[in-house]
Amino acid sequence: MRKSLALSLTLFMLLSMGTAAFADTSDVADASQMTTVQDVTEEGMVPVYAGSLEDGEYPVTVECSSSMFRIESAVLTVRDGAMSAVLTMSGKSYLYVCPGTAKEAASADESAFVPFAENADGAHTFTVPVEALDAPVSCAAYSKNKELWYDRSLLFRADSLPRSAFKDGFFTTASSLQLADGRYLVEVKLAGGSGKARVQSPAELSVKDGSCTARIGWSSKNYDYMKVEGEKILPVPNEEYAAFEIPVLCFDRPMAVIADTVAMSEPHEIRYTLCFDSKSLEAAP
Asked: What whole-number distance in Å separates Cα of residue 48 and Cα of residue 8?
């Protein structure tokens, strides 16, 4: 009698939980069915939420943990304290995406799925919520050919937005630090590229009238120019390594730069970030 009652109670509880209790994991791709998973985050990244941004629409760079989920371009919308993004895909291999993990998508109601839409050029697009920039966003993608849900991790890069997208006071600058005119040393970290390049740290920093300029010395002579916010900067004379004097737009957050290398068969622009540590600032000898 007690066993029968316990069994009845167990069945009642499972039925009350709905179909989620019986999630079909056969619809979820396992590790053997996935390509190499890449880490999309970088050391030093701090999440940026909608409250730090001005309302508007902005092109945004999106990185994905899988090379099979290729995003051609993306537009971020910030409105009323929330963010979403329209992802334009390079192919038509996916029917749906769903916020969360692949297992969660497999057990979710279809109302949670985001179907593709076609833009004016016939490309497939998905509109997804974005909780924060510079923080991984879990997003499951359903393959049309494999009929499986795949785990994807997306990263929306804050440093790809124009500075006008951020509210006043968001960035730490020479003015907000109240740095006096003069010469300083500051620790700088390089990220991006293949991971083989290095820059000299600490770097020399010059401050004048609230503006900062840093001398960036690379680990080789194979860079012939840099770009900061689209401005092309040529190297300063140096016989040992490539050196550039570039503006420092902010401290304590990754600052996007481009460096053109001539080490390959053809010149190639490589995207990096530089992060200047304000806590390390000290007067230069």
From this structure: 49
- One-letter amino acid for residue 129 of the chain: P
Together in a domain, 88 and 144: yes
Q: Are residues 122 and 218 in the same domain?
A: no
Residue 14 in any domain: the answer is: no
Cβ atoms within 10 Å, residue 270: 16
- The answer to pTM > 0.85 is no
Average pLDDT, the chain: 88
What is the total count of domains within the chain? 2
Mean pLDDT of 92-113: 94
DSSP string, the chain: -HHHHHHHHHHHHHHHTGGGGG--GGGB--GGGS-PPPP---TT---B-GGGB-SEEEE--EEES-TTS-EEEEEEEEETTEEEEEEEESS--EEEEEES-HHHHHHS-GGG-EE-EE-TTS-EEEEEE-S-BTS-EEEEEEETTT--EEEEEEEE-GGGS-GGGBPTT-SB-TTTTTPPSEEEEE-EEEEETTS---B-SSEEEEEETTEEEEEEEBSSS-EEEEEETTEEEPPBP-SSS-EEEEE---BSS-EEEEEEE-SSSS-EEEEEEEEE-GGG-EE--
Whether 24 maps to a domain, the answer reads no
| Residues 57 and 151 placed together within one structural domain of the fold | yes
Chain centroid offset of residue 265 CA: 29
Q: What is the CATH number of the domain that holds 258?
A: 2.60.40.1850
Q: List the domain range (segments joined by +) for residue 233.
A: 182-283
Say whether both 277 and 198 belong to one domain: yes
- Residue 96 inside a domain? The answer is yes
203 and 272 housed in the same domain: yes
pLDDT tens track for 174-222 = 999 999 999 999 999 998 887 889 999 999 999 999 899 999 999 999 9
